[in-house]
Amino acid sequence: MTSAESFCSTSFxxxxxxxxxxxLALAARLSEDPNIVVGVLEAGEHIHEMPEVSVPGMMGxxxxxxxxxxxxxxxxxxxxxxxxxxxxxxxxVGGTSALNFLxxxxxxxxxxxxxxxxxxxxxxWKDTFLKYLMQVETYVPPTDPEIAxxxxxxxxxxxxGTNGAxxxxxxAWFNDHHAKFMxxxxxxxxPINRDTGNGRNIGASVGPISVDPATMTRSxxxxxxxTPNADRTNLILLTGAHVTKILLETPPGEPVVATGVEFSxxxxxxxxxxxxxxxxxxxxxxxxxxxxxxGIGRTDVLTQHGINTILDLPVGENLRKYPLLSRNSVTKxxxxxxxxxTLPFIHEISKDSATFDSLRDPAVLEQQLTxxxxxxxxxxxxxxxxxxxxxxEKLFDSEDFLDLQKQILQDTTLTATxxxxxxxxxxxxxxxxxxxxxxxxxxxxxxxxxxxxPERQEGKVYHSIMIIGLHPLSRGSVHIKSADPFSSPExxxxxFSNPADLEYMVSGVKFVRKLMRTExxxxxxxxxxxxxxxxxxxxxxxxxxxxxxxxxTRVISIFHPIGTAAMMPKDDGGVVxxxxxxxxxxxxxxxxxxxxxxxxxxxxxxxVYAIAEKASxxxxxxxx
Length: 624
Ligand SMILES: Cc1cc2nc3c(=O)[nH]c(=O)nc-3n(C[C@H](O)[C@H](O)[C@H](O)COP(=O)(O)OP(=O)(O)OC[C@H]3O[C@@H](n4cnc5c(N)ncnc54)[C@H](O)[C@@H]3O)c2cc1C
Hints:
The chain is of the alpha/beta class. It has a domain of about 220 residues: FAD/NAD(P)-binding domain (3-Layer(bba) Sandwich). The chain has 18 helices and 25 strands. Strands 7, 17, 18, 19, 20, 23 and 24 form a seven-stranded antiparallel sheet that branches. The longest helix is centred in the last third of the chain and has 19 residues. Bound molecules: flavin-adenine dinucleotide. The site of flavin-adenine dinucleotide has 40 residues, from helix 2, strand 11, helix 9 and helix 18. Keywords: FAD, Flavoprotein, Glycoprotein, Oxidoreductase, Signal. InterPro entries: FAD/NAD-bd_sf, GMC_OxRdtase, GMC_OxRdtase_N, GMC_OxRtase_C.
């Protein structure tokens, strides 16, 4: 830790903006060379002791807490009844890795290969992602015989790392409905996949979590990459430092040079000027904000806020938000912000089932705290355990699927720009693929208590099955809404603006209904709570139109926004090239989730770490 004055007088080689998931991984790797000096500017603070962050069973409880969450919200979303949707983002050392739900999974090989197919040589499963995903992790299989012998869990050493910074292990507590969920999926013809780490993310699986099994606490960017290296004299982190702008110079006929970073700490303005590069790792919402504040973005957006355009690039935006663009702008406006959607399907379950909600009872909490502290076991050492990754064939009957496929194939908005065209070619190939998941189910052993939900009734016990749309076709935008660097960005994901996204969610709801009627779930006495039965006590389902209405009322984000500074060829609307450098600049890169050009079929944190590890090799090679 240091003062702002001393930070600014340090002769840095690199300054990284954002001490989050990617930023700290990159900082740790770059500072391995003692001759290289790395500075990190983080707007939030270093929170050392916060059980809501470190204790697995308390995950989600820090959401909305301004100490660790920017707690953004979207603008009104027209296709979902004009609702504004909560969009949390981690604030502080560790960023969103300190706030997330700990799911530590990998997508399918094809998802990673799609990054290369979109114009990024070598960014594929074999050459990049598998290598760096292994490099990031220390994978620890369960040792507790009861868990280790669970027929649903397995792993292949060939695909997992043993020496990485992030610990990937297994929940120490499995809820009463875990096995029912897995076996009901199996009985519905969804095969068990004992390890999704091998590039096959389909079927029913038990996923690892980002938890250090030695302490049974969250393993995140701060604990994995920063704390172990905090004594390096060449790695300097300044917290409470809100970056307001990157200073750019424009030598005639040459690429733009990033010469400094302006930031505010304790209401005072400072500037730091590194020797080599500036790297933006402020995340999917704030990386585009800082680029735009610095004069990199769409001219019409910047002009609206009185900012001079230095580089006209499609930062944080999407064609369909601006239907009246000139032809010239249309060809540039292909960047692809998008997000995974989710619906919590809540059931009332038997009163004697233990769920995370049991911790609301002070007596249970005290007993579980003792168990956690003394044996690292029990509810507080537990997490989400069970997943189902479903392809279209499990979600639709063949006639309905053909209709939907036809609708998607004929949708000209999906081919309106070069990047959308390339993306939709890939997405259309995956639609009928029995080995490619379109919907993820995730069993949450508690009443998922954010979003517009009905009252949780005291004395009743619930579990939630999250239905997640993995390959949304809707595209949105993130822009500054003011030239004030302290105002929140305008987030407009345009959820359900493509009607096919709604149809996939409806298919997910209907699938979960069938799942609950399949053994062994069927005999567990679970009652539909939300969505409700058609009329109380009938066990009769809502009609498709009623489910559509319910989806519009309930849909929220599962918080995986990407693509606001997409890595793609410039002519396709990319913001960074495949070395993560911002087009037209000499020494400005982006390293975070915003560069991922298309949503992958899983939760993104492992991929974000892998991107940061690869970025450090790219940056080291550029110096050599
Ligand atoms: C509630 C929630 C649950 C999630 N659950 C999972 C999960 O279970 N599994 C999974 O794989 N993924 C999950 N994710 C997503 C995943 O955690 C993120 O995609 C990933 O951590 C993003 O990393 P990043 O490096 O892009 O950004 P971040 O980790 O958010 O880092 C950005 C950093 O930049 C800082 N910053 C921003 N603006 C400024 C500024 N102006 N000046 C200085 N610093 C700034 C921020 O404070 C932050 O520390 C979840 C996300 C959320 C919000």
